[in-house]
Each structure stands twice: as structure tokens, then as C-alpha cells.
């Protein structure tokens, strides 16, 4: 926690520089390692290419999944179970299932790979809505003091 900046009632937001470094490292490792990973398990060049392109699509979900999970943990920790449950359910069940059924029907194999990143993006919209609402409640409580 940052000294002098929080009173214990404000939401904790991770240091943006460390988050950016983590995300860039994940993208680099997964992006550059995808061709190696596909060659380890498969000999067929066509399947290797499918795996490589799929991993490059799927890796974008890692950028957002931490934000959604931490936001869910945050809402649980401050006693807002409804918000936490909505984020978790949207991310792990509702939006994911919809994406798994809809995207492959429209986009084929790329739709399978896009299901997770699309789920994380749509869940992030919900997460940002709840975080903005929570921030407003905190600001209103401070003004009322």
C-alpha cells in the first residue's frame, strides 16, 4: 500500500508500471514461444501453424484476466458479494459459454481461440462499471464527512 495516499477505505489499484511490465513479459514469452511450443507436441506443419496462430490470439486474454480476477477479489474483500459474483460468473460461465457457442459459429477456428479474450474484454466492461460505481460511493462518503 502506498504511504500517505490511502486511508484504508479507498480501493487499492496496482502500480501501473509493474502491471505493464508483467503484461509485456507475458506477451513476449507467449508470442515468441508459440512456435517452439507447437513444435514440441506436434509434427504436422499445418497443425503447428494452427497452434501458433491460436496461441497468439488466446494470449490477449492473459492481459485482462488478472484485472478481472483482482477486481472480483477486491469486491469480495469489501463485502460486496453481488459485484464479485457477477464478475466471476460473467468471466467463468455466462459470457464464456455464450462466446464458445457464438464465436466459432461465426469465425470458425479463430472463434474458438477468441472466446477467452472476448470474455475477458466483455467482463472488463462490467468490472469497470462496478469500479466506477464503487469509486463514486467512496467519493460521496468522503464529501458527506
Structure, explained:
The protein is an all-alpha fold. 83% of the residues lie in helices and 0% in strands. The protein has five helices and no strands. Helix 2 (45-58) packs parallel to helix 5 and helix 4 runs antiparallel to helix 5 (109-144). The longest helix is centred in the C-terminal third of the chain and has 36 residues, at 109-144.
Secondary structure layout:
Elements: H1 16-41, H2 45-58, H3 60-77, H4 81-107, H5 109-144
Helix pairs in contact: 1-2, 2-5, 3-4, 3-5, 4-5
Summarize the structure.
This protein has 145 residues and is an all-alpha fold. The protein has five helices and no strands.
Question: Which descriptors would you attach to this protein?
Answer:
145 residues, mainly alpha, 0% strand, disordered N terminus
